[in-house]
Amino acid sequence: MNKFYIKIFFFLLSISLYLNNKTIATELPKKNTKPKSRKFTIFKSKKCYHANDNTEEIYEKNKHLLYTDTKETISACKFMKTALKQLEYHATNKDGYRLIGTNSAYHILSYKKKQQGDTKIVKAEYVVFDLNKYNKIINKLWDPDSSNFFYAGSVKRKIARVYTPNLVIIQQRSRRWLWSRQKYFYAIAAKFKISENKTIFVMASPNINDHNSKNTKFFQNTIIKNANLFKVNIDSENDIRNGKLKKMFVNLSGYIVEKKKDHIYVTYFESISGIQILII
């Protein structure tokens, strides 16, 4: 059993335990309770709507991190619009992928491929046969405190900056083994409610300066071509500034969660530079 397949298995196990043991409030907030500070509605279009789930709840917990730079917020919105299009293309495209694992019990198919030199991509597709779990799944995926990620080791995530309730910067720290060096990345994360039955989560790293004094490697996003044109400064912690953690870079990552006639279909896509544990 390869490593990526094991990660998918434990991810689905965590989803199952979460959905069976935890109740999440999913009521729609009243219109007059929305934060007055939210001015940017670039995600509102014929295709994208604000998600009707725990978006506001998580925003309230992190609104002290609200960033008021109008120019950067608009740039972040445009950047994630591009990332959304790329995710929809790469996650649904079949070209070049090689099947690396199946599990009929959990209805999982997992794939990998390489493109443009060393760009590594992994993808998983799986099915949940309970339509009532749709909101709980998307709540779990948007919650940075949930252990829903495809990593075998220790992973911690937190919101580092808030642009809007469904557009934030995420910091992730991970360590595969207790004795291994800790790694990290910063990435912009967005949630798009495409319709009542479809939600997409997207994450990608622009040109983020986190003031890591020992990071001399230039990361080029090989999937989102204009990523390096969008520059962001982050006031990182001392251990990152002092170069104690190894930096990673998210080319593109995300989930497409769609409610079908009698099941929920989930597609997971990931391409991260500086990490070697996903590709065998």
From TrEMBL:
Classification via InterPro entries: PYST_A
Domain of life: Eukaryota
Keywords: Signal
Segment forming the signal sequence: 1-25
NCBIfam families in alphabetical order: PYST-A
Protein name per its UniProtKB record: Fam-a protein
Organism whose genome encodes this protein: Plasmodium yoelii
Lineage, opening ranks: Eukaryota, Sar, Alveolata, Apicomplexa, Aconoidasida
